[in-house]
Known about the structure:
Layout: E1 2-5, H1 10-22, E2 29-33, H2 36-45, E3 54-58, H3 64-70, E4 76-79, H4 86-91, H5 93-113, E5 118-124, H6 133-148, E6 158-164, E7 166-167, H7 174-184, E8 187-189, E9 196-200, H8 202-215, E10 221-222, E11 228-230, H9 231-238, E12 243-245
Parallel strand pairs: 1-2, 1-4, 2-3, 4-5, 5-6, 6-10, 7-9, 8-12
Antiparallel strand pairs: 9-11
Amino acid sequence: SILITGGTGSFGKKFTKIILERFSDVERLVIYSRDELKQFEMSQKFNEKDYPQMRFFIGDVRDYPRFKRACEGIDVIIHAAALKQVPASEYNPDEFVKTNIGGAQNVIDAAMSTNVKVVVALSTDKAAAPINLYGATKLVSDKLFVAANRIKGKRDLRFSAVRYGNVMGSRGSVIPFFMAKAKNCNVLPITHKEMTRFNISLEEGVEMVLWAVENAIGAELFVPKIPSYKIETVAKAIAPKAKLVD
């Protein structure tokens, strides 16, 4: 039985699709998120008739009692829920702390209070030497999951984290943002021409998480070797004639 926090996001939907295609013996696949519209839309695609193992739980990782209830009977937690937009984090730091740090601790506490066996948390390249609040909250989250292995006692439970780069084409990511901007104007806003981004596809991200579930012994922070590019390069590839403004 598997639970995915933030399961209605880009990663969660792709993870669900691959799990249902590849593993017929999954007893339950729980989508845990706070957006009822996205849950409704996802439940139309993965409906109860065709996929009887699917469950949809409305809830927030900030709400410990609700999340703990959702973890009953769960073997594996994939923790993908997070607030992720860098500019928003600078204007709403307390909200990011509550979700990305407090939510991570709730996942750890709930896993240790139930019979969960494996927890794999999704991190970000922005957590490496962070210069923004979002990256800082994810760095703390990573530290919490690694440290959880030292306080789990004799529980048969493993915590690890997967830290990879920008998921190409995911909701809110830079490529669809640039493409939308290029349609409406001839100016693309960039943070800095020398900024480096690391790219990974949704499929590669899912495969890495599945590998971590199978192979982690606990306390690892998995970092893949993936391609990188300068933000100026991708901007010019999308809109060669656009003016770049930093």
